[in-house]
Amino acid sequence: MLNKHDVDIVRELAARVADIASLPVQEEKRQLWRQLNALKPTRPMVMIDQICWNEMGREKEMILQCSDDECRNYEEYLRRTLYQWKHFPVDMVVESFVHIPMAVSGIDFGIEVKEETIITDPDNDVVSHRFENQFQVEEDLEKLREPKVVHDEQETERRMTVAHELFDDLLEVRKTGPYLYLSMWDPIAMWMGVENALYALVDRPDFMHRLIVRMIKGCQSMLDQLEQQGLLVGPQSLIHCTGAYTDELPAPGYDPKKPRTVDMWMFSMAQVFSSVSPDMFREFEVDYISQICSRFGLVYYGCCDPLDGKMDEVRMIPNVRKVSMSPWANQDRGADEISTDYVFSSKPNPAFLAMEQFDSELVRSNLAEIRRICDKHRCPLEFILKDISTVRYDPKRLSEWARIAMETAEG
User: Fold this and answer.
1) Which fold has domain 4-410?
2) 15 near 22, Cβ under 8 Å?
């Protein structure tokens, strides 16, 4: 039984979100995202995500007041939505629904990360890691457990009951499946350590092939199980920090009660391969991840890895629609390679918000140069500011970045 104090707090916030969600601008933004994702943009789009929320927590509007943990989670989500809409909305879309995660377990490989961490800010979850290598001998491959998807329907229904009490008549409640993070090499980097994994690609290539084969097989099985049990989500509003609105999904034959992978976006990356050759990238990543990407309707590929010199290989991956161009990529070469074939997903450098003094002209010149390059090569463009570890406890920096980015996009 929820206490009235918590219910009143959540419903008051939900009512404010519902009012914003009803504004005509939300559908206008959805349409702009659809045009970009169809490679026929009206203008570049802008998103801000993966925010250092711990540095906003000192402001009155962000202080949590609920006592129940479940209510506090919803309160936090609603307060963050309202805060972002007020201070740095850029092209976010505020939806008229709330996602309620189904109680799904067993979508992992049964391996816990073993690591040491160093923390510089106890309020920030961004920390330094040193990972223990758990894959050193052939027998270690047996540690990989094939995912066995389990849905606790009773717990899901309990969550839905709570959500209805909190949101009915204000926001629609929608069941949602697990968030699928389908990078193979990011987990391997955490199970082995980046340096160990890179050395193993050279010193023990057969071992690494056997490792990735097991992961791909397990991932295929997991996706089959999620499809069979009707545990996938659709339609999507976001895919990896960017708008997922499209008229191309879901695919023909879609059943909303049982979405398939072909009805969805997926995202993947191989950030640990930033320093490997295009041939190695193809051998250990492209040839494998393509087996997963071929199942999905559309694919967002890449993250912090510079892909400007590997676009020939990226083109081999099925169904790619957006390609990340990180701050470490040669922007002109990347835009030349992407041209009109994909969305150039620019990742402006978040370090600009972490400098001792915020330099608005540096931000403006950087964004303007990326837009100039993409205009020259006719690239559909989005600016995605993410991985924001710190703004030095000065949230106004995000508002200023947002203002400059929207001026650049709309200019």
Assistant:
1) TIM Barrel (3.20.20)
2) no
DSSP string, 187-215: HHHHHH-HHHHHHHHHH-HHHHHHHHHHH
Mean pLDDT, residues 347-358: 97
* Number of alpha carbons in the 13 Å side-chain half-sphere of residue 380: 19
pLDDT surpassing 90 at residue 116: no
Give the pLDDT band of residue 315 (cuts 50, 70, 90): very high
Per cent of the chain over pLDDT 90 is 92
Contacts by residues 399-402 (CB-CB < 8 Å, ≥ 24 positions apart): 399/87, 399/88, 400/358, 400/360, 400/363, 401/48, 401/88, 401/352, 401/353, 401/363, 402/46, 402/48, 402/87, 402/88, 402/89, 402/90
Under a CB-based contact definition with an 8 Å cutoff, are residues 345 and 324 in contact?
Answer: yes
Q: Mean pLDDT in the chain? A: 96
Give the pTM.
0.95
Taking the C-alpha atoms of residue 370 and residue 349, their distance in angstroms, rounded to an integer, is 12
- Closest Cα to residue 187, out of 105, 100, 298, 289? 289
Q: Which residue has the tokens 């090569």?
A: 377
Task: Assign 3-class secondary structure to 104-115.
Answer: EECCCCCCCCCE
